[in-house]
Amino acid sequence: MHSRSSQMACAQNLSSFLIALSLLLTISLSTTNADLVDDVCSKTSRPITCTQVLQSDPRSKTPDLLALGFVAVDIATNQARSGKTLLESLLKRPTTGPKLKTIYSSCLENYGDSLDDIGNLSGFLRSKDYGSVGAYASAALSGPDTCDGSFSTPSDEPLPLKAASDKLQAICAAVLSINNKLQGQ
Fold it and tell me: For this UniProt entry, which segments traverse the membrane (predicted)?
């Protein structure tokens, strides 16, 4: 009888230990994932925006740097498309004057170029061509930056467009940061 209660106590202790170990691993992995995003974003010019944009995607919880790179490229693609859609709607507004139409058209082209550049990134990441990843991510980063510079003053740029630009620049900078880390491995 004594051995049966010892076996039960041992089983309970083992069960408790396994639950505690599982919790510890879960907490450790979530901290590692958050640390990876924080580390990547801390190397960008917009660390807060970068962190918010990356962490808004549940796939960014990966502990793998290369996988995070693919997530960032996917987010960048969506951000560039969103910016293009916004610019198309701004161009269609009847109250948009000729000067703004010219600026918006130029910005639309900038965002299109960025989208083309971003479209090449997954293939370069997959083949571990980090030189090309860096070149194309930098080129993609220049699209929204050039658009921002088209406005006479920052206050002339519509807030939704500025927000879209900030997000795209932050996520392209994250791709660059990830690329730099991958090159160093």
Answer: none
